[in-house]
Amino acid sequence: MSALTKLYEGKAKILYTTDEPDILLADFKDDATAFNAQKRGSIQGKGEINCSISSKLFQQLEANGIKTHYIDNPTPNQMRVRAVKILPIEVVVRNIAAGSLCQQTGLPLGTVLKQPLVEFYYKNDPLGDPLLTRDRLLLLELATPEQVDGITHLALQINNFLINFFKRCDITLVDFKLEFGLDSQQQLLLADEISPDTCRLWDNSAGDDPNRRVLDKDRFRRDLGNIENAYQEVLQRVLKAVEGIGSRE
Q1: What is the dihedral of CA 38, 54, 94, 154, to 10 degrees?
Q2: Pairing mode, if any, of strands 131-132 and 171-182?
Q3: Among 21, 184, 230, 247, which residue's beta carbon has the most beta carbons within 10 A?
Q4: What is the pTM of this model?
Q5: For 39-70, what is each residue's pLDDT tens digit?
């Protein structure tokens, strides 16, 4: 294999080109950021943990008919992925009120929503990743109406799968962020990652303690400590759940 060429470096990953034009290599970093990168730090082992969790979840989603950019893992913190043109939209699915939803609406933390809420945010750091209405999204031509409908449908499908999967892990899926891209055939693929960096995950075995139950990046955002242990706990439960699914097949 020839030397890798860096294509893009984000907050959590570096993308490299490979000898195959339709395949990229994603290198997961230990870097941690929050509040639009105003807070920065490092979480030891995060790259390998998030890569492992994302890989397992992508494989499970593929097995359930959701197309993703995942191919395989050449190393523990690297993922080979299909090259896609990322749509500049962050898709957030919420099942329980937390974070900005509480801040912007006054809903109490932990309010269970009557139905999942799908939100779109403009993936634009200088603008602060603002919340978009559907009409604004179409005005900016960030996606076609058909793509917006497809993304919404896929996001709800993914949410339904993840809720049930994390139940097997004794974890409640509060909310999560997704990104989608278009491959060379203009097919929508789930991209980026699904991990404690992009999900709010609450430990069902922790009782009602609002701090002890947190198993995601909120531990970093809110200086709760034990960040590495929380991420590692999610990984172990995911691996156990996947093993359980495999043993039943």
Answers
A1: 130
A2: unpaired
A3: 230
A4: 0.94
A5: 888 888 999 999 999 999 999 999 999 999 99
